[in-house]
Amino acid sequence: MFGNVILPLLAALGFGMNVIPAIAASKTEDQEIARRWVAAHFSETDTAQIPFSFIYGGKSSRELLPNWKLQKQEKTLDGGRKEITLTFAEPGPGLEVRLVAVTDEKHPAVEWTLHFRNTGKKATAILEKIQAVDTTWELAGDKLFLRYANGSNTSADSYRPMLQPLLPGEPFRLASKGGRPSYGPSLPYGCFETDREGVVYAIGWPGQWALTAEALKQGQVRFQAGQEVTHFRLERGEEVRSPLIALLFYRGNSGEGTNLWRRWMVDRNLPRANGEILGPVLVANSSHLYNEMLNANEKNQIEMIDRYVEEKLPLRYWWMDAGWYVNDGKWVNTGTWEIDRKRFPNGFRPITDHGRSKGVKSIVWFEPERVTTHSWIFQKHPEWCLAPTNLPTPLAYQGEWRLLNLGNPEAWKWLVNHVDGLIKKEGIDLYRQDFNMDPLYFWQTNEAPDRQGIHEIRHVTGYLAYWDELLRRNPGLRIDSCASGGRRNDLETMRRAVPLLRDDYLFEPTGQQNHTYGISFWLPYSGTGTRFTQKSAGPANSVDGKPIEELAKFDPYLFRSQMTPCLNACWDLRRRDFNYDELRRALSQFERASPSFLADYYPLTPYAAGDDAVVAWQFSRPEAGQGFVQAFRRAKSPAKSAKLKLQGLETGAKYEVENLDGGKQTRTGRELMEQGLTVNFPSAPAALLFVYQRVD
After folding, report:
1. CATH number for the 280-594 domain, one of 3.20.20.70, 3.40.50.1820, 2.60.40.10, 3.30.1340.30?
2. Measuring CA to CA, how many Å separate 45 from each of 71, 113, 674?
3. How far is Cα of residue 353 from the mean position of the Cα atoms in its chain?
């Protein structure tokens, strides 16, 4: 790994403190690069550059496809997008390969998915080594790198930026871990880049993916990616799909590429409910007070909502997490998806109705795929489940669990109907789905030698279809994606859900700062937990069923370290000795700054893992002339001040910059970008928050 070289190399690529990139917008030049690439790679007359590959009957698709019948269709979609379908048919009834691509006139992006169907009367030959993307391109510039980030690993360095030099003859491989796509050494997002241009990619596959990148010669790279293992025959009439692949092209420096990507993510991917995205929001829960939901009941949940209202805190969602269902006293025991009537004799409806009457919607946690012994599913429908095979020793504890097979039509139908019924009956506004297991070892159970990868494909497509059906049946429903934190946040998932808890490493300020620093390159929307004080930081649950005590002193350094688009409050509002005036002030500042979270992002300092550094970043809304800057002096940093060169401003414009702890100044964009914003830290640690607004 090359995490230790990310900082100077990012500066060399144009993402450093001395660069003044243009405001991120889809330039004509970028659009033209994308159009030329699409024209060359989705041609109906030349299959040489088709951007995927596979082996069929022992022969390469490069050899087979020129001799297969090819049809091309185009269809106009909404919003300046176009769908292109290329269909390749094996001579005689047999395998049909269909590529469905979407191009975009608003963004320099293209995406596609492959579909394989058996149109014959008998099983196909072996179809294997499917690479949903297998293509090459040349990038102008001196050196070629792959920029990516650590996955969500429940650690302080989750989402750490990584930079891998690509050299001829040295292929570089990455893969997800255990069947969850954003767990392990890399997120399913990255960028091939030089100091002059780049291509950002995403792999949309909520399963086990793998990629290989290799420099072929100076500036030329080959990129292969897909489901890690595919080796199967298709039965008569059977159809499967590949991972979704998305590419975004840009000319310029790394900062421009990042912000073109963020804009495409918000505009084309961030899910909408009734046409609206979920903006920055305060949500809250009592999990740290009541041993998740094991000691919760109707009375204390209503009391907690009322306390937020009483203290005039701008709560939008009340979050009821794990443990509300029938279990044997441990939240981890899942598989009986019925509300525990001993604690909630009237169900959730009195709580959710009460919340809505106060302007507070509801979030309810589910983990339907993980089935434990003694649960209803385990006892009544073992045929719906997959058992694990070849679990690594660290995962031996999962041996007694089962995976609800979402590729099983009966299991899928039951789950859709049952959860849909709960959503409607209990008045659930936001469905939260967790996934605390490694499904790869369950998918591999009893797969025949000529059916390797089919369990995974069926489960993945069933999972996506399950969410699509819940959304179809419940207009206005939102979904939160959780998998032991942020371990299933691929592009397909992010088109349906937002990650309200990006990682299970919580409440420690340096790690929280670094999570924001790293994840913001790839996912504009995310959330994390927030506590009153660092002293209260601890494990995600209460200890031995007893609540973690919190001090009555507000810690602005911790609060600002935890600022994210979704601020998940884990506060003990049973206490009345806390200084709620300070908390209301901090939330008011959060509300002033937070609209810019979904706009352009610029790191203003290097990434730093230790406590002896100053770290800062900027979020900018150039169209509104607004933004904010956060700067942190960590506990062991000797620096009493720093000069931060802002980015993405208009050189001739004037900006009023306000330190939300006191003080204003008016500077030109050129001054702020070339001379920099001087920040003075009153102590160590310290967290400063500046907002700016164009004033001329």
Report:
1. 3.20.20.70
2. 10, 20, 51
3. 31
**Secondary structure letter of residue 180 according to DSSP:** B
Between 3.20.20.240, 3.40.50.300, 2.70.98.60, 3.10.20.30, what CATH number should domain 3-14+26-269 receive?
A: 2.70.98.60
335, 400 contact by CB (below 8 A): no
Query: What pLDDT, on a 0 to 100 scale, did the predictor assign at position 1?
Result: 30
H or E element in which residue 656 lies: strand 654-659
Measured distance CA(68)–CA(313) in Å, rounded: 64
Quick check: 332 and 373 in contact, CB under 8 A? Answer: no
- What's the pTM value of the predicted model, to 2 decimals? 0.94
To the nearest 10 degrees (0 to 180), the angle between helices 409-426 and 349-357 is 50
DSSP assignment string, 392-415: -GGGGGGGG-EEE-TTSHHHHHHH
- For residue range 354-382, list pLDDT tens digits in order: 999 999 999 999 999 999 999 999 999 99
CA atoms of 114 and 241, how far apart (whole Å): 6
Mean pLDDT of the chain: 93
CA distance 74 to 84: 5
* Angle ∠(252,256,262) on CA atoms, nearest 5: 145
CATH 2.60.40.1180 intervals, the chain: 600-694
Closest CA to 402 of 414, 420, 384, 418: 384
Predicted confidence (pLDDT) per residue in 593-635, tens digit: 999 999 999 999 999 999 999 999 999 999 999 999 999 999 9
Q: CA of 417: how far to CAs of 237, 375, 429, 480, in Å?
A: 27, 18, 17, 19
Alpha-carbon gap, residue 261 to 201, rounded angstroms: 9
- pLDDT for 41 beyond 70: yes
